[in-house]
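Hi V.,

Quick status before I head out on leave. The structure for the redesign project is tokenized and pasted below; the design run finished overnight.
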């Protein structure tokens, strides 16, 4: 599966284990810059409602590695892009399996490393505390952190650091494996929860009701996540989205989080910022870990000093990765350029506004949010089936005052979506 500099339409395989909406947005963006897009995903993924995908390959949560391997062999892509953390771990495992069968390497091993970066650093990326130590070695500002293997380790950390502290479980994302704790009782309770394998009853419920098999295998195997502790940084959250190639950052986006879902949930409104530490940290991390593909870095910007503390890496595309915000700020265009060997004639930024309300995240959080009008509301109007599907789901969740209607401007459309007419147009 070699990459040729004469490719005119590179083939990208999106690989995802859940029905995360941003994966659909990235598929649309990749198709728009000139890529052929295939996807391996669970059934009823929102990307099926778009016109961006050539073929859809079924992901089976009970045979996850085989699902990815089969799709790769059928598609023979130039690059594979994981859409969530679990997809990245599946690709790591597929690489390990292939290497055991073919110690000198294989086409699949080459593809995974070309897509993600050096396999020698897969273990660093998968272990939160190890990654933090590597970042510290590179001179990047990070909070103190340590692995807590048991309650004795936890008590020792609390006695030395004090409260509040942050507990994080490896292999989790979207805030699911993060807890900010203020007391000994909270820390013990949340440590036990984070370290416990998924309950079989919960895994079965997710499989039957939500048609989501991702928890079944960890539940059956009784895998216990590694939990680490970090010092708490009082401040505001920020994030960087990157496209890297052989240790170099080719395109990047830097945002401050303005609004989000819950204390540890994902961002729903972001604002573009320039921050020296957020610009230099990705360069150091990409070089040290020899990264390729899409990655994200999360930070806390300290209130008192404005210093940016790197708190974790997301080894996959993030929910802002599709945004085209100009030269050097268009990640899909950077991917196309590196695979074709040609310069992509990027369009100007999709907006002149710094603040962006992510769709449908902010809309789902609050259909009457002022950000839907005052910020740039990133609605994929070219895919009405996708927008209407989101509208229907928002109503089911208890927000009946939702409108989607045709208009000539983003401002008018967003205002309509925040209105009170319970009807959906095309």
């Amino acid at each position: 599966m070699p990459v040729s500099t004469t490719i005119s339409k590179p083939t990208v395989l999106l690989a995802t284990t859940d029905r995360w909406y941003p994966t659909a947005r990235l598929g649309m963006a990749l198709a728009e810059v000139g890529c052929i897009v295939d996807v391996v995903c669970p059934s009823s993924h929102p990307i099926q409602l778009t016109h961006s995908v050539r073929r859809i390959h079924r992901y089976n949560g009970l045979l996850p590695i085989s699902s990815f391997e089969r799709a790769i062999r059928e598609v023979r892509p130039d690059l594979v892009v994981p859409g969530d953390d679990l997809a990245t771990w599946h690709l790591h495992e597929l690489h390990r399996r292939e290497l055991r069968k073919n110690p000198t390497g294989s086409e699949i091993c080459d593809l995974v490393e070309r897509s993600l970066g050096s396999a020698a650093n897969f273990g660093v990326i998968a272990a939160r505390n190890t990654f933090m130590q590597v970042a510290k070695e590179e001179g990047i500002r990070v909070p103190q952190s340590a692995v807590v293997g048991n309650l004795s380790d936890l008590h020792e950390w609390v006695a030395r650091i004090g409260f509040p502290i942050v507990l994080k479980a490896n292999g989790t994302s979207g805030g699911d494996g993060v807890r900010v704790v203020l007391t000994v009782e909270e820390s013990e309770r949340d440590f036990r929860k984070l370290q416990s394998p998924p309950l079989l009853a919960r895994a079965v419920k997710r499989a039957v009701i939500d048609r989501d098999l991702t928890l079944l295998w960890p539940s059956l195997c009784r895998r216990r996540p590694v939990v680490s502790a970090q010092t708490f940084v009082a401040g505001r959250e920020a994030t960087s989205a990157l496209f890297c190639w052989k240790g170099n950052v080719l395109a990047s986006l830097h945002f401050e989080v303005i609004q989000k879902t819950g204390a540890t949930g994902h961002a729903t409104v972001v604002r573009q910022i320039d921050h020296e530490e957020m610009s230099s940290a990705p360069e150091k991390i990409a070089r040290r870990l020899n990264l390729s593909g899409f990655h994200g870095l999360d930070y806390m910007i300290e209130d008192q000093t404005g210093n940016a503390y790197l708190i974790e890496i997301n080894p996959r595309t993030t929910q802002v990765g599709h945004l085209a915000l100009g030269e050097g700020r268009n990640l899909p265009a950077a991917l196309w350029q590196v695979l074709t060997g040609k310069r992509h004639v990027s369009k100007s930024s999709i907006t002149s506004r710094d603040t962006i309300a992510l769709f449908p995240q902010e809309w789902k959080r609050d259909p009457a949010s002022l950000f839907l009008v005052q910020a740039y509301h990133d609605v994929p109007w070219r895919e009405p089936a996708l927008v209407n599907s989101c509208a229907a789901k928002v109503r089911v969740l208890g927000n009946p005052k939702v409108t989607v209607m045709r208009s000539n401007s983003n401002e008018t459309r967003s205002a309509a979506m925040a209105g009170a007419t319970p009807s959906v147009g095309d």
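Above is the designed sequence. The chain has a mean pLDDT of 86.

G. will cover questions while I'm gone.

Best,
W.
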